[in-house]
Amino acid sequence: LFICLTIKESEIDAIAMALRIATPLIYHNDIPDDPARPNLKKLVNGESRLTPPLTVTRQISTANAAGLKVTIYSKGEKSKYEIYRRFEQQLKSDCRILNRNIKLVTSPITIGGHASSLESDVSQWLISDPGNKFCAVDKPY
To answer: Which of 133, 12, 114, 17 is nearest to 63 (CA)?
Structure first.
């Protein structure tokens, strides 16, 4: 799954903390050291968090004036904790409510003036109709 957000610079370390839990393989980086971002430094140096807790939740907001609130949930591969079940009611998605017309978006699609197609994006986009929520899944449902 790939979601692109414009964030405030002050949010970078919170995102880095969530990524440390997920233990990504970083092939290359050219990020300068900054003592204000200790988790980012540990992330790019390969210092992933391998001790409990193996889950983390971080709140960030986007850089625009209204500041869209984003919640990041991250879980290490060795964690057996069902991280999403705990937050299922809080997420308020209407993608799984009965009697909603869930439709798979056909290719090509335009979102916010940017065109995409199945050939250039393997995610599967679903939109609830009526509704204002969307779900993006990166595995067949």
So the answer is: 12
87/91 Cα distance (integer angstroms): 6
In the chain, DSSP assigns E strands to 55-61, 69-75, 101-104, 109-111, 114-116, 124-129, 134-137
CA dist., res. 75 & res. 8, Å (int): 24
User: 117 — phi, psi (to 5°)?
Assistant: -140, 165
Alpha-carbon span 124 to 78, nearest angstrom: 26
Q: Using CB atoms within 10 Å of the CB of residue 7, give its burial: 0 to 12 exposed, 13 to 18 middle, 19+ buried.
A: middle
Helix/strand/coil (H, E, C) string of 56-93? EEEEEEECCCCCCEEEEEEECCCCCCCHHHHHHHHHCC
Closest among 84, 134, 92 to 109, alpha carbons compared: 134
Q: In the chain, pLDDT over 90 holds for what percent of residues? A: 0
**Measured between alpha carbons, how far is 40 from 38 in angstroms, rounded to an integer?**
5
Using CA of residue 8, residue 46, residue 121, residue 95, what is the dihedral sign? negative
**pLDDT tens-digit series, residues 102-134:** 555 666 767 667 776 666 655 555 555 555 555
